[in-house]
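During the second half of the funding period, the structural biology subgroup turned its attention to how the target accommodates small molecules. The most pressing case was uridine-diphosphate-N-acetylglucosamine, which had performed well in the primary screen but for which no bound structure existed. We therefore specified the complex as follows and requested a full 3D prediction, including the ligand pose.
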Amino acid sequence: PRVAFVLGTRPEIIKLSPLVRACHRREIPHTVVHTGQHYSESLDTVFFEQLELPAPDHNLAVGSGTHSEQTAEMILGIAEILSDEQPTDVIVQGDTNSALAGAIAASKQSTALGHVEAGLRSFDREMPEEINRILADHVADSLFAPTDEAARLLEAEGIDADRITVTGNTIVDAVSQNLELATRKSTVLEEYDLEPDEFYLLTAHREENVDDPDRFAGILGGVGEFARRTDRTVLYPIHPRARENLAAFDLSVPPSVRLVDPLGFLDFLVLESSARLVITDSGGVQEETCILQTPCLTVRDTTERPETVDVGANRLVGTEPSTILAGADEMVSRDGSWSNPFGDGTAGERILDSLL
Ligand code: UD1
Ligand code: UDP
């Protein structure tokens, strides 16, 4: 085979890194097409460096824009590369506009499409990610579902079981390949003067939260108040979308919440594993906290990662301060004795085996 990976954002770089590295190791011909959806150093190149990935073979430099502009421009750029290079397989990951564009371009070019992290559903069609993942799943030829539950949801939508393989999630591979290095190399706790188990970690960047002033203020207020009451600080590595909206809406940040620039993967892994509690609207962070045995509160109304809630690692609390406070009270003292539902860290190898 000749594999073309299409990726464009922070979580795709992280979650495809085990596959790209495995292709390299196994000498499987491959090319990496970066759409340029993420381009800031802190959301992009830092991950190529830390995850020891070669620079992408192509960068479409699509940048930011409306969903339609971004997706359309990506499809055109990817199609041209596919037509020049004629790969046998296109691989996309997750639910971003980059993943959707790769899926559509592959299908128009009649190139086999593999979708990594198939079968996740929040059942909230207001979220752009939900539409992206449904479309990518339905055009994919090979669907790599992280869990049995995800495979079941795909079959319930009429997707042929022959096309679905349960592989675990490649985030387990990425965490297990980098945690030891992170613990050895990162000085993030010293840098921010944090004691393990004595601080909280927040990430919030989803459109439905940070583009809505009430929801964004609810998250900051609830998390800030919990930190004040328990006399701890919250570290918030803030995504540029959220940073811009904070200013645009003129929201005030509680004194217990400390904003810092987005961090590299190694520092972020150390923070996730040392935090007393993590509060997030991220998909990847819900999984990583579950894997790293740190309790998590998800400030959303739905999750496409229900396995994390089922095992007791995560709770959905919405964005009202009162429900955040009640959820935090319950989760803060939970011990991390649950089992990891996302596989054994060999998802990347399983996906490649199934492609070959
Ligand atoms: C995208 C994904 C989201 C994912 C997130 C990962 C879609 C629809 N959304 O959201 O599912 O959780 O990536 O982080 O694909 N910006 C920068 N620098 C960058 C990139 C963006 O400053 O490198 C700013 C720009 O102001 C831009 C805004 O962030 O308008 C949003 O970027 P965009 O790529 O549209 O979506 P994300 O919020 O990053
Ligand atoms: N992450 C990181 N630095 C940060 C915040 C997040 O390295 O400052 C990593 C995190 O470990 C996870 C991924 O980014 O693997 C999650 O990406 P994000 O939350 O942007 O997107 P989502 O998973 O919600 O699509």
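Two results from this model are relevant to the next phase. Residues 10-11, 14, 203, 205, 237, 262-263, 265, 268, 282-285, 288 surround uridine-5'-diphosphate (ligand 2) (CB under 6 Å). The mean pLDDT is 98.
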